[in-house]
Amino acid sequence: MVNPLERLNMPFFSSEATTLLIYGGGGHGKVIIELARALKCYQLVGIIDDGLPPGSQILGLPVLGGAETLPEFHQRGVNLAINAVGGIGNYSIRQKVFDSLAQSSFTCPAVVHPTAFIEPSASLDEGVQVLSQSYISSDAKVGFGTVINAGVIVSHDCLLGRCVNLSPGAMLAGNVRVEDFAQIGMAATINIDLTIGARARIGNGATVKADVPPDGIVRAGTIWPIRRDV
Q1: Which of 31, 106, 127, 227 is least crowded, fewest Cβ atoms below 10 Å from its Cβ?
Q2: Are 214 and 198 spatial neighbours (Cβ–Cβ below 8 Å)?
Q3: Domain count along the chain
Q4: Is 185:206 a contact under the CB 8 Å cutoff?
Q5: How does pLDDT run across 110-166, given as a tens digit for each residue?
Q6: Domain at 92, CATH number
Q7: Are residues 88 and 35 located together in one domain of the fold?
């Protein structure tokens, strides 16, 4: 294996190869590494992480350096990268990674775990991640960079915006609109024909029965809207 500290001596990669960088070596990064390996169509080059020491390893994959190394790898023929920074609680962190990748001309492919099921009429934009055992139903549309975590259900005609994050076990009924950067917690349920506004946060186990405004917060385990007559 090439010493990541000597990456300047690495050969150029074929531009036609499916060589891939993983940006982020935290918990979500580990999940994405295993997902990419399960797909058996990518050659994983290593991990880019601004907070981990170069030369360390995550699940056997070397840490190559921080964002400053991206132009170098692109010049050497690595054109694909996956944003493995989850950004839970701070969507701007995930957006910043996408901005760094775009500035270095990387493409972020959509990746779908082999155990997930996507109906043929559904569509996924670039950078989408669909984890294990999830289901995306008919005519659903998933926007750029959105994370569909494990065991999520996205029903028919749902429209998910940019960098939405659906935590494990979240369930969207039909024709739900989730706007940019909204985050939906574990096992939360969203009723049919509703809109979750941009940057809204829905807590774990919450039940949503009415629209949530932009930047709205629904507390974990509660029913929205909150009844004031009880």
Answers
A1: 227
A2: yes
A3: 2
A4: yes
A5: 999 999 999 999 999 999 999 999 999 999 999 999 999 999 999 999 999 999 999
A6: 3.40.50.20
A7: yes
pLDDT of residue 17: 65
Query: Is residue 159 within 8 Å of residue 142, measured between CB atoms?
Result: no
Phi-psi bin for 75: left (phi > 0), alpha (psi -120 to 50), beta? alpha
Write out pLDDT tens, residues 175-199: 999 999 999 999 999 999 999 999 9
* Residue 85 belongs to domain spanning: 4-103
pLDDT of residue 152: 98
Half-sphere exposure of 103 (CA within 13 A, CB side): 11
Q: What is the pLDDT of residues 68-79, one digit of tens each?
A: 999 999 999 999
- For the chain, what's the residue count? 230
Residue 19 within any structural domain of the chain: yes
Q: Look up the pTM and report it.
A: 0.90
Structure-token pair, residue 23: 């940006």
Structural domain includes residue 223: no
Q: How far is residue 124's CA from residue 111's CA, in Å, rounded to a whole number?
A: 9
70 and 149 co-located in one domain:
no
Sheet with 171-172, strands from edge to edge, namely: 117-118, 135-136, 153-154, 171-172, 189-190, 207-208, 223-224
Q: Quick check: is 82 in a domain?
A: yes
Handedness of CA 143, 147, 150, 152 (dihedral sign): negative
